[in-house]
Design brief:
The chain is α+β, with helices and mostly antiparallel strands and about 160 residues long. It has one domain: 2,3-Dihydroxybiphenyl 1,2-Dioxygenase, domain 1. The protein has six helices and six strands. It has a four-stranded mixed sheet, with helices on one face. Strand 1 and strand 2 form a beta hairpin. The longest helix is centred in the N-terminal third of the chain and has 11 residues. The radius of gyration is 17 Å and the shape is globular. It starts with a helix and ends with a helix.
């Protein structure tokens, strides 16, 4: 990222807040099974509870309807994702998918190699989230050389 862009950065953190009916199950799934470390937790005397889990680097992916459809087609073979899908980069998509399913997630589609060279699996997870776990199979530099990759600025 250029220095100019760094000077304009105002957002310091992306935090996705998920209301989970079964708080304990969702917390155990994301913290203990997926492996997101707990940064902080808060509770009040009236039973309100929240845990803030560290999900590493955050990005916000904005996709138009055609891109969303294409990703669903590649990863699942049909339209399944709601408007919001949460994706987690992991070291081993296959092993992570197995762990998450054993912990209560529903596999929507098994790990699939995508045209952008990642291994992506789809699951319905606690808290009502539709998630992707993905493993990058090529380096960022290798992906930059693929057709269609780059940034809007570099594509002209």
């Amino acid at each position: 990222m250029s220095t100019h862009a760094d000077d304009r950065r105002q957002v310091r953190q992306l935090r996705l807040v998920v209301e989970a009916e079964d708080y304990e199950a969702a917390l155990a799934f994301y913290r203990d099974v997926l492996g997101l470390p707990e940064e902080a937790a808060f509770s009040t005397g009236d039973g309100a509870r929240v845990a803030i889990l560290d999900a590493g680097r955050a990005t916000l992916e904005i996709a138009n309807p055609a891109q969303k459809k294409m990703i669903d087609d590649v990863e699942v073979g049909r339209q399944v994702a709601p408007k919001l899908r949460v994706a987690f980069e992991v070291d081993d998509s296959r092993a992570t998918t197995e762990r998450l399913v054993a912990a209560g997630a529903s596999e929507v589609a098994p790990p699939t190699v995508t045209p952008w060279q990642s291994l992506n699996a789809r699951l319905d997870a606690p808290g009502g989230l539709h998630i992707t776990v993905f493993q990058e199979l090529s380096s960022p530099e290798e992906r930059q050389e693929m057709d269609g990759f780059g940034t809007d600025a570099t594509r002209g």
